Amino acid sequence: MTNLDIIMVIVRVSISAFVPLCFLAVCVTMERRVAGFIQDRSGPNRAGICGIRAGGLVQNLADGLKLAFKEDIISEHVEHKFLYVLAPIISMAAAIISFALVPFADTLVLDGKSYVMQGIPWDTGILWFLAITGFSVYGIILAGWSSTNKYSLLGALRSASQVISYEIPMGLAVISLLIVYGSINLSDIARFQGQTWLGFIPMWGILLQPLAAVIFIVAAFAECNRTPFDLAEGESELVAGFHLEYSAMKFAVFFMGEYVAMFASSAVIVTLFFGGYNIPFFDTDFLIRNIKPVAFVLLVILPVFMFYFAKWIRRNNRSQYLRENDPRKAEATIYIRCFWILIAIIEVFLLAILAFAQPDTAAAHLLVALMQICTFLIKVTLMLFVYVWVRWTIPRFRYDQLQMLGWQKLLPLALLNIFVTGAIVVALG
């Protein structure tokens, strides 16, 4: 194994492991900000370090430190302490591992060698995600059972039945997708969606299989225990659900696992239905062949984007009432300078591409890979926004409504979709 091979393994594994963890802060901040916007309030805007609030990110740091230093209490009636401690670890680990096979860029070619841009380059693809998400429910079941608390046990049982109910239509929705894509490998699926129909319509899963997309997304909400399917927690009926007996960091790890699972499921939804890492209308080969025009367009667009982004930052970083020497304006100036420095570094890189790079070289492949990673993360962020948007818009279902939706609506629709898809594919040859 060469040094380049070792570096690429480290890069792939680092992205697969650390990006979901980094998005924890993004998810929590988005949750609070969107909730504040929908409820017509400001959201987190007080905690700061030397006046820097970082748009609410410092509040996450404060909450994390608070939970880390709180007393970790294990009740005397907890009989199986090992399983009690293991439960949040299972939920968190399963959420991180489920992202391992999601491709975040097309195959990268350097020095004549091809590197698959996913954490674990296996061919199990979507089957890995379905298996790991099914395994994650054991963390919730163990938490409820090992707590020796009837409310925790009720929350765990409701979660288990919910996951079983919605894993079946999710799997059936995937079957109709596999009929179209002809592969379970997520890299092949993303590459398939890089094609266009009639020369201008992207062949994304949302257009090829709209019913499967709806079924899969609804089931993903239920798998992540997100409102309106958060029956596992159901504070109004179960006091707090499966995590009632947990405190300090064990309590925090459960919610961290929920947000990581939300990120992983968003990544899979984007890969299956929204083109994955593909930039609409521009496949990888086109971008590599036209690397200089692409670099020139980015060179022009990025400063324009940053100009309007800076105006948005100034408009949204000021006090709601008049203040002399408003500290939030000074904070906005710091943000803008940091972003302009980042843009300047990118511009230098793009100028080097324009001056020296040729099509089908390492620099061209690296630039395209970076563009695809950014595209993928933007799509995932938009899907995360949908998760948050739904949570603060739709009220929680009753338990009987949740089960009726899964068994009486989604399951028959998923079966019907398989038959119709199979008939169309056979008819078209």
Describe this structure in words.
With 429 residues, the protein is mostly helical. Helices cover 69% and strands 2% of the residues. The protein has one domain (3-278, 380-428). Strand 1 (108-110) and strand 2 (113-115) form a beta hairpin. Helix 2 (57-69) crosses helix 10 (248-273), helix 10 (248-273) crosses helix 14 and helix 12 (291-316) runs antiparallel to helix 13 (327-356). It is globular. It starts with a helix and ends with a helix. The relative contact order is 0.13.
In short:
The chain is built from 15 helices and four strands. With 429 residues, it is mainly alpha-helical.
- Listing every helix as H and every strand as E from the N terminus to the C terminus, the arrangement reads HHHEEHHHEEHHHHHHHHH
Whole-number tally of structural domains: 1
User: Residue-averaged pLDDT, rounded?
Assistant: 86
Largest sheet: 2 strands, antiparallel
Approximately how much helix is present in the residues? 55-70%
- Please tally the helical runs, counting DSSP H or I stretches of 4 or more residues: 15
User: How many strand units?
Assistant: 4
Distance between the termini: 44 Å
Low-confidence stretches: none
Strand order of the largest sheet: 1-2
Radius of gyration: 23 Å
Strand % is under 5%
What coarse outline follows from CA principal-axis ratios? globular
Structural class: mainly alpha
